[in-house]
Design brief:
Length: about 260
Amino acid sequence: MLIAATQMTNKLKEEGKFSYIEVGEGTPIIVLHGLMGGLSNFDAVLRFFPEKGYKLVIPELPIYKKSLLKTNVKNFAKYVSDFIDYKEYSEVILLGNSLGGHIGLLCTKMFPEKVKALVITGSSGLYESSMGESYPKRGDRNYIKKKAENVFYDPKIATKEMVDEVYESVNDRNKLIRTLAIAKSAIRHNMAKDLPKMKNPTCIIWGENDSVTPPPVAKEFHELLPNSDLYWIEKCGHAAMMERPDEFNAVLYKWLQKKGY
């Protein structure tokens, strides 16, 4: 689970079935947000990498717009592949947090030729604590507040605005049904058997205090992915790019430079 946040100031481009933000020129980094993650969770990434010669692209995943039958991880991975084709990118770097990491992993498995490199942080795909729990009863705002605070090492990052957005989502029947559908789909799409066959270079960046996808999950990703590097960020929960943006950007940029991307 990831927490929604205020929409960023960059304007969404609306083209056909795609809505996305695009900033900068250079190697495209496609950012994939989480199940309840706002595009603005990646504000710091969006400010940093275009200045370093990368094109940052954040598509809005249609989590609440597809039919229930199509609300699953596999269809969202296909959606990302369609977006890559639509933009006529030959190869991209995928960067995903939480469910976005899971979608990035599955997209890389299904379309390896389109992915130059993969970056995952707090990714589901092996285990995520909130996926297996019952979702809160509608109207239980205190429960939502605690869940939001648990995403971060510093609970103050879960502002009233974030809590209000998640509260609104779980009180919207359409969104709640689709949230449950995608959560169940994520559990079904466990990738432990797939990861050893995936050779794409992968950067794993993890908060040492992640309680949603705990540190052993990161270690397992690292052990199973044959071409991966694992980096830890101290005093950090499930959303490293929000909670420790400077450290996150520095680690990722150094890795990209080391790989020659």
